[in-house]
Amino acid sequence: MALYVHKYGGTSVGDTDRIKNVADRIIQARQRGEDVVVVVSAMSGETNKLVAYAQAVQERPDPRELDVLLSTGEQVTIALLAMALRQKGCPAVSYTGWQVGILSDDVHTKARIADIDTARVRAELAEGNVVVVAGFQGVTEEGDITTLGRGGSDTTAVALAAALKADECLIYTDVDGVYTTDPRVEPRARKLERITFEEMLEMASLGSKVLQIRSVEFAGKYNVPLRVLSSFKEGYGTLISYEETGVEKALISGIAFNRDEAKLTIQGVPDRPGIASKILVPIASANIEVDMIVQNVAEDKTADFTFTVHRNDYCKALEILEKNCGELGARRIAGDDKIVKVSLVGVGMRSHAGIASKMFEALANEGINIRMISTSEIKISVVVDEKYLELAVRTLHDAFELERAA
Amino acid sequence: MALYVHKYGGTSVGDTDRIKNVADRIIQARQRGEDVVVVVSAMSGETNKLVAYAQAVQERPDPRELDVLLSTGEQVTIALLAMALRQKGCPAVSYTGWQVGILSDDVHTKARIADIDTARVRAELAEGNVVVVAGFQGVTEEGDITTLGRGGSDTTAVALAAALKADECLIYTDVDGVYTTDPRVEPRARKLERITFEEMLEMASLGSKVLQIRSVEFAGKYNVPLRVLSSFKEGYGTLISYEETGVEKALISGIAFNRDEAKLTIQGVPDRPGIASKILVPIASANIEVDMIVQNVAEDKTADFTFTVHRNDYCKALEILEKNCGELGARRIAGDDKIVKVSLVGVGMRSHAGIASKMFEALANEGINIRMISTSEIKISVVVDEKYLELAVRTLHDAFELERAA
Fold first, then answer.
1. Burial class (CB in 10 A: 0-12, 13-18, 19+), B217
2. Nearest C-alpha of chain B: how many angstroms from A154?
3. Chain A: residue nearest B101 by CA?
4. Which of A340, B30, B100, B319 sits between 20 and 30 A of B24, alpha carbons compared?
5. Alpha carbon distances (Å) from A20 to A26, A30, A83
6. For B75, which of A68, A78, A82 is closest by C-beta distance?
7. Nearest-CA distance A70 → chain B (Å)
8. CB–CB of A64 and B93 under 8 A?
9. pLDDT of A94 above 80
10. Which of A129-138, A283-292, B102-111, B139-148 has the weakest average pLDDT?
11. What is the DSSP-derived secondary structure letter of residue B297?
12. Other beta carbons less than 10 A from residue B364's beta carbon
């Protein structure tokens, strides 16, 4: 029998009516003859309420106790969903993380799953039950409750799907799939039928906040096909899997972008070994994450070194550079926090030359100046002035004909 | 080292400020050099909110799932109280029912504790921690979450105190002790320093809703001294324990009453064996609980049979009797739902004649007609017209000089 792991996020189970809708979806799957394991998050708003309680009693809430507290959120949802299924005549049983045997390490509030004992889930499935599992939580060997941190419910679903060798892991959310780009920027954006894990990682990290990166990495590692789909609308969503040989693949899958970037340039530093680390170590020490890094050597044997950071960290980074300017022997520090990053993503570009030149040409035709370029195997990113974001995305979407299926 | 089990009910932990107050009380106990295990209920209102959720998704919520749902209420409180204690520098650690080893049977929503494994609590106490335990919940041998039903947190506290051989079990609540009668009826009611388990059982079942009957029975069975005291006011409350020999004991400890009674009389039934069961079996089959039962034989060899029920069941009981009237050979069915029960309670009356006559005389002097009488070893109950309730309580309180300490 086909086995599917469903995952419903906080919005999808946000109130009792929505929980009933989720029950209907699960019953549809059962009527198609599928075995179903369901992973759910806390009802939206619940986790924030609990965190507010914690902060009211302890300045820095104790991590062990915070996990005891927060894990109640998902526990409420599993019980309600199991009840809703039973009300509609569908046999169902709920399991918390510790009950179902999701063993984790003891790093409270951001634990990692160490092992899953699937015996109890398999037994319940064999008895014809839908198994409803609390996402986001586990238990240590000593019996302490843990939570898996941000995106933890996605991780639970993928880990369960891997452990159970499920056919697919369906991530139900409030969007109906992964698009070629953000439809709010380019209305002609097209929903993708499929995308590879690598492309999804690039899309996710570049700003398409559909799935948590960790769960995509996890799914890729254990080769669990992921499907992103809407819990409110019908449809097949987008399948995230490995590239299939023999399938004609589009060159470009999508266009990601990131509005929250700022760039910093150190001009005229002496071009000698170690200069890059001298610049970046103080930045990293201040807990500032660096995204793109580009370095050019000028004719006078000095280098221009440019990197981007999150816009919130811009002032702090600028301050650090200016303090170190003398030591670095730099001529000048420059910065700009009115920039954005736009990226073409696609496994197809690996084997095709000419993508970059076509991209740059399309942007040039619209008079968009490229301020920075960075490339990887399956991605080309450019930094442009903030005001060109929408124009750049639409221009590239058009140039690569993304509105048309491959 | 002296060991005390504290129990704080839903009102005492009703919000984060009150949880901080509870932390202060516990820290005071620690400063007196006491080891403390704390049992807490859900924050007031939480359980009702969860029940409403359940009823919104399933007409008759599945008992197993209801337990998964409701047990989250106490889990929230234990985490918050442990945090509040840590914030104030007091080492503390929380435990759910399953974590602390409170093993129960599998009768969901009204499970009974089968065993408590105290190893983990003792280890935490030895390390200098306050141990905060979720009341009202346990776990079956199969690992299913159970709840103990109404008053379950009191039961958890008493069971833990018994298993740990604690010096006392302190039940913190919103009243500051057990009174000779309800102070809202008799302002001169006096707080009792001590009362026996048997007296407390009679007082509780007769309407003084300070403690749940089951936990008093449990404390009596395992000889755990119970103390009822206020979580908002200072004071030593009331100690509930076995009668101490050699201690001069008052004849009467208090006056309980019950406003919710109704009485039914079957007049002129033939006085022959089996008539009582013929009357009561159909009543019990309709799930109506019967309280007092009185039967008198008249000179004509017919009997008058009278019993009381909860006022909510009055109409249903009357209907059943009228339907069976012919079969019973009764002359007439009569009823009255405007009556109340007033009871004198005291272990001292065991060895003293004259209590009953003094009671009846005092009531007669005020013109209060007694409609029914029932007695036990340590209690005399009378049924009187509803309108006389306050007068009867005050008259008896005065006649037995209950405003004065023994």
1. middle
2. 22
3. A143
4. B100
5. 10, 15, 9
6. A68
7. 8
8. yes
9. yes
10. A283-292
11. E
12. 12
- With contacts defined as CB-CB under 8 Å, which chain B residues touch A14? none
Determine the residue of chain B that is closest to A63 in CA distance.
B83
Residues of A in contact with B68 (CB under 8 A): 75, 78-79, 82, 94, 96
What is the 3-state secondary structure of A219-263?
HHHCCCCEEEEECCCCCCCEEEECCCCCCCCCCCCEEEEEEEEEE
According to DSSP, the β-strands at A370-376 and A194-196 are: unpaired
Minimal CA separation from B110 to chain A, in Å: 17
Closest residue of chain B to A80, computed from CA coordinates: B54
A287 burial (CB, 10 Å; 0-12 / 13-18 / 19+) is exposed
Residues of A in contact with B99 (CB under 8 A): 143-145
Measure the CA–CA gap between A226 and A157, rounded to whole angstroms. Answer: 10
CB contact under 8 A, A57 and B87: yes
Residue A252's identity, in one-letter code, is: I
Residue from A252, A266, A267 nearest A347 by CA? A252
> Taking Cα atoms as reference points, which of A7, A65, A92 lies closest to residue A41?
A7
Contact A83 B57 (CB under 8 A): yes
Nearest to A168 by CA among A222, A247, A226, A89: A226
Spell out where B181-326 has E strands.
Answer: 194-196, 226-230, 238-241, 254-270, 290-297, 302-310
What local confidence, expressed as pLDDT, does residue B210 receive? 72
Which of A71, A83, A145 lies nearest to residue B65, judging by beta carbons? A83
Sheet holding A290-297, edge to edge: A290-297, A302-310, A254-270, A332-345, A379-385, A370-376
Q: A76 and B87 in contact by Cβ < 8 A? A: no
Letter for the amino acid at B117? Answer: D
Greatest Cα pair distance, chain B, in angstroms, is: 79
Find chain B residues with C-beta within 8 A of A61's C-beta. 83
Q: List the domains of chain B with CATH numbers.
A: 3-174 (3.40.1160.10), 254-399 (3.30.2130.10)
What's the token pair of residue B312? 């909510």
Q: To probe the interface with B, which of A72, A109, A136 has the most B CB atoms within 10 Å?
A: A72
User: Which tens digits make up the pLDDT trace of B348-371?
Assistant: 887 777 888 899 999 999 999 998
Chain B residues with CB-CB distance to A56 below 8 A? 16
Minimal Cα–Cα distance from A229 to chain B, Å? Answer: 24
Best residue of A83, A133, A140 to probe chain B, by most B CBs closer than 10 Å: A83
Task: Identify which of B132, B164, B162, B128 has the alpha carbon closest to the alpha carbon of residue B33.
Answer: B128
Q: Which residues of B289-306 are buried (b: 16+ CB within 10 A; e: fewer)?
A: ebbbebeeeeeeebbbbb
CA B144 to chain centre: 28
pLDDT per residue over A338-361, tens digit each?
999 999 999 888 777 788 889 999
**In A246-378, beta strands by DSSP E:** 254-270, 290-297, 302-310, 332-345, 370-376
C-alpha–C-alpha distance, residues B237 and B224, integer Å: 16
Structure token pair of residue A221: 């590692």
Which chain A residue's Cα is nearest to B79?
A: A65
Check: pTM over 0.80? Answer yes or no: yes
Q: Phi first, then psi: what are they for B131, rounded to 5°?
A: -105, 120
